Amino acid sequence: MINYELELETLEIELLLEAVFRYYGYDFRNYAPASLKRRVWNAIQAEGLTTVSGLQDKVLHHRDCLERFLLMLSVNVTAMFRDPSFYLALRHVVVPLLKTYPFIRIWHAGCSTGEEIYSMAILLQEEGLYDRCRIYATDMNEAVLKQAKAGIFALDRMQDYTQNYQQAGGKRSFSEYYTSGYEHVIFSSSLKRNLVFSQHNLVGDGPFNEFNLIVCRNVLIYFNKILQERVQTLFYKSLSRFGILGLGRQESLKFISYYQDYEELVGCEKLYRKIS
Known about the structure:
The chain is an alpha/beta fold. The protein has helices at residues 4-24, 33-46, 52-61, 63-73, 84-98, 115-126, 142-150, 158-167, 225-238; strands at residues 104-109, 133-139, 152-154, 178-181, 184-187, 195-199, 211-216, 239-247, 262-266, 271-274.
């Protein structure tokens, strides 16, 4: 039996995403459907609306509504030294490879509010590499980029972040990297000097440099296979030969056309090296 309400909802969501793409250039048309649908309805409720078409009207006529909609669709779950074993693998396996380069370019794609960017900067500083690194931190969302650039985070998260840091092989006292006050902390300006924050849309924008390391963790799981392939093409073109790609635990290069062009460095941490 045909479910006409479900068909109508699907059509409305498709029209909404097409309109956002055509008018603003943000392409969500190949995001994983279940997660996307849930986020669209969260946005509808947050705007005090009742239909997808009502959301489309408001998004197209009010730029501030678009900004809120982008925040709803963006996945901004992050933490400092998230998955500590990943950073431990970076220290023991990736850092020795990076030390062979006179200058190192790193791209952190989908950097969100920046916790993992500062984690990378701390790790590189402790390993004596930060002074010859440039870290490009990109996200499609301008609002979260502003937060990342500020380097200000909630004080009540520092206990968890300290534990992550220690498990990730941290070599100092974590509190040395920030100053606290008024329920927040601000990270040291020395960690920011080689960071470049810029807006970049993985779905629609192309390569902008050649990198020795690309980190994009827990982003691709929200894309369908078509979009994953497109983004992996972007990463392949952006990596130097023997460049390293780091993905999230639930992500993989398997079933991607470039799979044979990489070798696994640390399989369980989804670290790969480009070999051709």
